[in-house]
Amino acid sequence: PHISVITPAYNATATIGRAIATVQAQTLADWEHIIIDDGSTDDTRAAVDAARDSRLQYYYQSNQGPGAARNHGVRVSQGEYLIFLDADDWWSRECLELLVCALRDKANTPVAAWGDWAFVDVHGNARNAPHSTPGDEHPVITLLFRPPFIMHSILLHRTAWN
């Protein structure tokens, strides 16, 4: 696969189906979706199994937190690029395609690309939708205090993770 989508999940029965569906609906289809179940005690496994997609991989680990689950996902992934999607989040249909195109436009530094994101309430209303334009201050200050991206909107080349 070109892209490894890594999803940490903990007691995610209510939300994991939507997250998986948004990956399956991507206009770019060359991906694997790795679900790391971080010790769930609900029916997360059954919700993942219901998705029935050969590109979907499920792994169970004892509860260690989302960071450990993401690291586990990276270790078992095969993609040239990595992106994270939490079990309660979702993407637009063009997310992966747009990020890959943005990377191609950065021919000298094809390490990462990111896009806009928004908080969405339970009714589907976007609020506080930030933009991914970096500030005018020093890049380190921008990254530390006003990062132009969140983990779920950045596509990384595998070499950037190591």
Give structural notes.
The chain has 162 residues and is of the alpha/beta class. The protein is built from 6 helices and 8 strands; from the N terminus they run E-H-E-H-E-H-E-H-E-E-E-H-E-H. The chain has a 6-stranded mixed sheet, sandwiched between helices. Strands 6-7 form a two-stranded antiparallel ribbon. Strand 2, helix 2 and strand 3 form a beta-alpha-beta unit. The longest helix has 11 residues. It is globular, with a radius of gyration of 16 Å. The chain starts with a strand and ends with a helix. 28% of the residues are buried.
Average pLDDT for all residues: 84
Could you tell me the strand content as a percent range?
15-25%
The structural class is alpha/beta
Contiguous helical run count: 6
Q: How many β-strand stretches?
A: 8
Shape: globular
* Rg (CA only): 16 Å
In which range does the helix fraction lie? Answer: 25-40%
| Biggest sheet descriptor | 6 strands, mixed
Indicate the low-confidence ranges by residue numbers.
none
Q: How do the SSEs run, as a string of H and E? A: EHEHEHEHEEEHEH
Strands in their spatial order, largest beta sheet:
3-2-1-4-8-5
Gap from first CA to last CA:
19 Å
